[in-house]
Amino acid sequence: MTRTSDIRVAVSTVIFSLRRLASGDGAAVVLPLVKRTRDPFEGLWALPGGWLGTDENLDAAAARTLAETTGLAPSYLEQLYAFGAVDRSPSRVVSIVYWALVRPDEAEAAHAQHNVAWFDAASLPTLAFDHNQIVDYALWRLRNKVGYSRIAHGLLPAEFTLAELREVYEAILGKRLDPANFRRQVENSATLIPTDQFRTGSHRPARLYRYDHEVELADRGPLSR
Amino acid sequence: MTRTSDIRVAVSTVIFSLRRLASGDGAAVVLPLVKRTRDPFEGLWALPGGWLGTDENLDAAAARTLAETTGLAPSYLEQLYAFGAVDRSPSRVVSIVYWALVRPDEAEAAHAQHNVAWFDAASLPTLAFDHNQIVDYALWRLRNKVGYSRIAHGLLPAEFTLAELREVYEAILGKRLDPANFRRQVENSATLIPTDQFRTGSHRPARLYRYDHEVELADRGPLSR
DNA sequence: CCAAAAGTGTTTTAATTACACCCATGC
DNA sequence: GCATGGGTGTAATTAAAACACTTTTGG
């Protein structure tokens, strides 16, 4: 016998990517939102998500719902928090929220979707439910985690210059970093492998690096241990 | 109209406390478990918990269920992770797991309860469901968090000596710490207020300290901001 | 040649570690 | 007195930060 419950379980995802600034230097953290087409909060923007399937693991549900609503496939996906306040929705919904990273080139997929738009994380409108609060927390986690793990990888292609890597850090942390010290820090962390390729075009060619896949990307929670 | 679902939401808590070692020096991390009296996993030990109430917030459910099953009231409570693998239980259950700290003197309350016993965190038997995995993750979080926050507070009375505080760190981290350097670190952190009281009894009396309540105990997640 | 980014070197500061040493109490 | 933990001082090591400087390309 299977009991039923009047508490529903949803899964949502805060998806971060980077967008090159129009001014040319630097990038901004952006995220895709979906316009709600029904009550509650019809017309407001909300995080992509959906209901948890009966035969579906939590992370699979996160990947599925964000693919269905935005067309995106994340390069990094990690559980953020379970939100379950009684008054966060007219009906009782517990949302298992994930956060994800997608590379800027992959982010194009979401532009083709209807009712999906990218927003600058620094200037969001009022969102549906408690989604403003959720995004704030995800941003805090992103900034925090970039300091002690290699998640910046999730926002870059396979090969990249140190300047491009530094740009990712600068966009997330919101401050400039000393190129000389940044170089030494990532070199000492022993997570980068220099290639024989160079990125040319601007001025002095910059060496391309790639991540050492022997090293774990980041702690993804209890399930990866 | 309210839809129903065949996914149920449970709340469980990993409760940590300290128990003085029989040898006299040092302490061990211990946690209370509840013996299951019904299937599945009847007879095995499991984390205290219960079903989420329809009109109950997640953290309230964690506090309620751990009080009902163990009689404990935690001095610190924080969400750990949401576990929802399809095969973690015969029926579909998503468990929102919390972790908590109780002071050793308060831990006595759980000894009076039937079907509750304290176990050394370092040597647990096989537990019901995926609870071994959950405890491992909670231990990792505890050890991690003690390094950058003041959660040790949650395992000590209002006033304590630096040696007692150091014992908490040593029990959690599982290694000895230099008393001299430990003293300087906590003094420089500016979270302790020296009192005029001294703990006498052994040899040279040790000054009692208390925590500065102006400083936040620790990040408790998105809801405390 | 010049501008600009790539990359190296050097100095200073701060934090961590290791460990010697003095102090105050119970016995 | 003396053993023991409380508490202070200090030198060595390591990491972070600030910044001058050299190198290499496109124009």
UniProtKB/TrEMBL annotation, chains A, B:
Coiled-coil positions are none
Which residue ranges does the record assign to the Nudix hydrolase domain?
6-143
Q: Which SUPFAM superfamilies match?
A: Nudix, Winged helix' DNA-binding domain
For whether the record's keyword set contains Ion transport, the answer is: no
Alphabetical UniProt keywords:
Hydrolase
Query: Per its record, what are the GO molecular function terms?
Result: hydrolase activity
State the InterPro entries in the record: NUDIX_hydrolase-like_dom_sf, NUDIX_hydrolase_dom, WH-like_DNA-bd_sf, WH_DNA-bd_sf, WHD_NrtR
Entries under PANTHER family matching the protein: ADP-RIBOSE PYROPHOSPHATASE, SLR1690 PROTEIN
- Name assigned to this protein: NUDIX hydrolase
This chain's source organism reads Microbacterium pullorum
